[in-house]
Amino acid sequence: KELVFSGMQPTGNLHLGNYLGALQRFIGLQDSYECIYCVVDQHSITAQLVHDDLAEQTRQIAAAYLAAGLDPKKSIIFNQARVPQHTELAWYFNCVARIGWMNRMTQFKDKAGKDRENASLGLLAYPSLMAADILVYRATHVPVGEDQKQHLELARDIAQKFNNDFSARIADLGYGVEMEVGEERVNGFFPVTEPLIGGAAPRVMSLRDGTKKMSKSDPSDLSRINLKDDADAIAKKIKKAKTDPEALPSEVEGLAGRPEAENLVGIYAALAEKSREEVISEFGGQQFSAFKPALAELAVAKLSPITSEMNRICEDREHVDAVLRDGGERAGAIAEGTMKMVREIIGFNTK
Ligand code: AQP
């Protein structure tokens, strides 16, 4: 059975990268798949332990989900802390995964910085919890931005190692399912999840530096468009966005080696739900002084309705909490079904 899972951390404001790389793509999937979308609040304490108001930040991400068009009747929407099976499975995965696998993660290296010995153990083990988030539902597809590709590959490695290490028990208990891994057909308990990375902007870059990803933790607010920015702020940030002095090329290949131009064209294409080729055939040869206002107008038209809806939804805390509670119950029932089998496969005495 095909099932989609994805999540976002309640750390600071969502930005255009989060929206185009992930959230916008969640919406389209809910009509063709069974979907589970989580606010991964337990991930948010790996880098910073104490938050002023984690519960409220969690509501804000849930409000963004709803405002962008996720429908709680179609998709399960909840926050991770309501379903303790995620952390239980993460512990088992900590024992499946190898320290070397975690040490190689570029996000860990970036976030831990030079003082690695002082990073939290949770930051190192973050990908185990992410694998558990996905696999506790035995999800087959995960829509994410390109920056999460390496973590997804690690989730695949964990699933395969668990399937191999426990293959005899899985077979004895009759819990194996036939699945395709690449060209091969194999029998295993956990699916080897496929990342869904795509669209015209799978990696949205900083508006100040086309070689760095747009990120919440960039100290310059001009580097990103926040979902909470008003029309004036969006227009100002796009106007100030770094560019080179050339006009836009007449062929999409001409964007190679021009990271800022490529980024702005990708953003336009993703917002307009067009290909880069279509954008270049419309704007090729034009100067940024003509392209930027068109981009600003499009960004405002797409994002403003989401922002105002998000603010409206946020005011009704009880409604947001009710959505998360209901989603948590539905998610918990699925997760517990998986964990009953996992405990049996590992061989714990829980009789
Ligand atoms: N720049 C980006 N382009 C495309 N997709 C992106 N995502 C994040 N940044 C970009 C995708 O957004 C989803 C949610 O991510 P998250 O909540 O795990 O946050 P993050 O990746 O930690 O976001 P930031 O802004 O990059 O935070 P910091 O600054 O803390 O590193 C994921 O699917 C992610 O791929």
From TrEMBL:
<dbReference type="InterPro" id="IPR014729">
    <property type="entry name" value="Rossmann-like_a/b/a_fold"/>
</dbReference>
<dbReference type="GO" id="GO:0006436">
    <property type="term" value="P:tryptophanyl-tRNA aminoacylation"/>
</dbReference>
<keyword id="KW-0030">Aminoacyl-tRNA synthetase</keyword>
<dbReference type="GO" id="GO:0005524">
    <property type="term" value="F:ATP binding"/>
</dbReference>
<dbReference type="InterPro" id="IPR024109">
    <property type="entry name" value="Trp-tRNA-ligase_bac-type"/>
</dbReference>
<dbReference type="InterPro" id="IPR050203">
    <property type="entry name" value="Trp-tRNA_synthetase"/>
</dbReference>
<feature type="binding site">
    <location>
        <position position="133"/>
    </location>
    <ligand>
        <name>L-tryptophan</name>
    </ligand>
</feature>
<feature type="binding site">
    <location>
        <begin position="145"/>
        <end position="147"/>
    </location>
    <ligand>
        <name>ATP</name>
    </ligand>
</feature>
<dbReference type="Pfam" id="PF00579">
    <property type="entry name" value="tRNA-synt_1b"/>
</dbReference>
<dbReference type="InterPro" id="IPR001412">
    <property type="entry name" value="aa-tRNA-synth_I_CS"/>
</dbReference>
<feature type="binding site">
    <location>
        <begin position="213"/>
        <end position="217"/>
    </location>
    <ligand>
        <name>ATP</name>
    </ligand>
</feature>
<feature type="short sequence motif" description="'KMSKS' region">
    <location>
        <begin position="213"/>
        <end position="217"/>
    </location>
</feature>
<protein>
    <recommendedName>
        <fullName>Tryptophan--tRNA ligase</fullName>
        <ecNumber>6.1.1.2</ecNumber>
    </recommendedName>
</protein>
<dbReference type="InterPro" id="IPR002305">
    <property type="entry name" value="aa-tRNA-synth_Ic"/>
</dbReference>
<keyword id="KW-0067">ATP-binding</keyword>
<feature type="short sequence motif" description="'HIGH' region">
    <location>
        <begin position="10"/>
        <end position="18"/>
    </location>
</feature>
<comment type="similarity">
    <text>Belongs to the class-I aminoacyl-tRNA synthetase family.</text>
</comment>
<feature type="binding site">
    <location>
        <begin position="17"/>
        <end position="18"/>
    </location>
    <ligand>
        <name>ATP</name>
    </ligand>
</feature>
<feature type="binding site">
    <location>
        <begin position="9"/>
        <end position="11"/>
    </location>
    <ligand>
        <name>ATP</name>
    </ligand>
</feature>
<keyword id="KW-0547">Nucleotide-binding</keyword>
<keyword id="KW-0648">Protein biosynthesis</keyword>
<dbReference type="GO" id="GO:0005829">
    <property type="term" value="C:cytosol"/>
</dbReference>
<keyword id="KW-0963">Cytoplasm</keyword>
<dbReference type="GO" id="GO:0004830">
    <property type="term" value="F:tryptophan-tRNA ligase activity"/>
</dbReference>
<feature type="binding site">
    <location>
        <position position="204"/>
    </location>
    <ligand>
        <name>ATP</name>
    </ligand>
</feature>
<comment type="function">
    <text>Catalyzes the attachment of tryptophan to tRNA(Trp).</text>
</comment>
<dbReference type="InterPro" id="IPR002306">
    <property type="entry name" value="Trp-tRNA-ligase"/>
</dbReference>
<keyword id="KW-0436">Ligase</keyword>
<comment type="subunit">
    <text>Homodimer.</text>
</comment>
